[in-house]
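Morning run. Coffee first, then this:
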Amino acid sequence: MVRALIIEDEIAAYTHLKNILETSFSTQIAILGHETSVEKGIQLIKEINPQLIFLDIELVDGNGFEILDFFSFSSKFEVIFTTGLKDYKEKAMDYFAFYYLNKPILKEQLITVLNKFLSKQTAFDTEKYLAFKNQLENRQKKISLPMSNGDFCIIDIDDVIYCEADGSYTHFHTKDNKVYTTSNNLKSVENILKHATFFRIHRSLLLNLKHIIQFNNTGEITLTNKKKLLVSSRNKTSFLRVLKLMNYSI
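And here it is:
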């Protein structure tokens, strides 16, 4: 039996969700508590140690992100966001390995999500949560790069032209012709920037699409710093699709 909590400040929404769970998942998910605020939600999580939390983003004394920030380095639970904010698509949540449902919650949709959760039994992932939080709040304008000497360099994401893999390191090439080398590999950088306008044009290069000024049918890209790069044949079809979706002229 999965131990679950509901942190939701709208009583009607809480009752609706609880009724669906008790009707459809009574032998699989046990709702062990309900709170309406950040402070009390944190205390309840400490007491119950749940495996699953249904979490509203907007609460009476703050938002659900504050709860997740509190447990960001110690959590072992999964999160399903339930919110009235309608600006974000559920498909985006698949990448982050947790889920997002708009209120009023549809029974069929909730059942699909929970069946997926029960089959995977995934846990909250701090790195993926932070990326999602930045996406949802539209606040990620900068990125913090850990340097080999222990320092951190803060740069504007829009200033990054492309990121280049170098073994377990990544070189960030910026529009002021500087190169910053971080101890993160390109895959981890891609996970952080995937929600922004970045695309992996081949195995070792992650490109900021905002800095493209020309693309020709040979697969060659010209960037704002006049550098030319090649899109791999394997990635060319996907790359063209992305450009068209972003209303680039090609």
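Helices lie at 11-24, 38-48, 64-70, 90-96, 107-120, 126-137, 186-193, 233-245. Good start to the day.
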